[in-house]
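Predicting holo structure, guanosine-5'-triphosphate bound.
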Amino acid sequence: MSVEDALLYEDAGVYKTLLESTRAIPWKLDWATLGFAYIGPQIEDLLGWSASSWTTVQDWADRIHPEDRERVFNFCVAQSQAGMDHEADYRALRKDGEFVWIRDVVHVVRNDDGTPNALVGFMFDISERKRTEERLLDMQRELEELSYKDGLTGVANRRRFDMMMTVEWRNAQRLRQPLSVIVLDIDYFKQYNDHYGHLEGDECLKRVAKALQGVVRGQRDLLCRFGGEEFVLLLPDTDEAAAMALAWRCLDAVDKALIPHVGLGPGKRLTLSAGVHTAIPGEHDETTPFIAVADRRLYLAKERGRARVVSDGGLV
Ligand SMILES: Nc1nc2c(ncn2[C@@H]2O[C@H](COP(=O)(O)OP(=O)(O)OP(=O)(O)O)[C@@H](O)[C@H]2O)c(=O)[nH]1
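Done. Tokens:
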């Protein structure tokens, strides 16, 4: 062996040692035969399959998660044919049946005429990164959900109501369908707080929300806490008679919850008042005056003695 050869041989040994001591897994695929010319022995630590079990590109494809396989395979083949370096994330099958997220970073070695000669690359274990990404996504989803919920009662909040009101208003306009709202307000809640204390007042709001939620049946019906001790029910595709009946069921449900309100006198129970409004919104109608009508009816119900529902037909 010449000195140059000996040095080269020594260098190759150094490179091999270097390659095989990285956490990334090096590999080489011969393009003509689509066979693995080399894969780092570290692959066995990561996936459980020995280096010698990676013979052809088919072994690689077979060890990709079925949901990722077609996408990754087609992408890598197209990029390689085009002579483009690329990278792909996918779940690789471990020998024990579990999956590991891998990032494969691929360099295309080209012949003089530009056609691929070989692919060389590194596989990186990115499972930890993926787990972090998924945790972040979960947190984002959770935050998004929380931002539409009332913190105390768990029902939808005002923000959600405003959003759904806009959506359902447009639907009702387009389909020429009736839309109803019921505005519900606890009677003498100031006295409740004064008598039982603010914390008990909070508990009472939770019980009322629970009772009202039990009444809501329709898939698109939405109960929300409008603020303070006021709740609103948004009822798409619901005519006035049905909305009235539902308003009474709400009052009934709270009555049946048997929430004492002895601040008003011995044996007294908590009651609600409600205002109902229904309309088939015209093309240029706005939501604010629509809700204001239900609000005015609620105050009429209060004026007329509370524990009752007022709708278009007046006092019921
Ligand atoms: N505990 C508790 N009380 C609240 C909350 N939000 C609003 N309130 C109380 O609800 C009471 C509402 O009082 P008012 O608007 O005078 O109404 P009301 O006493 O129910 O009288 P009517 O509606 O006329 O029957 C006030 O005392 C508020 O402090 C809350 O989140 N928790």
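Residues 152, 185-190, 193, 198, 201-202, 205, 228-229, 302, 306 surround guanosine-5'-triphosphate (CB under 6 Å).
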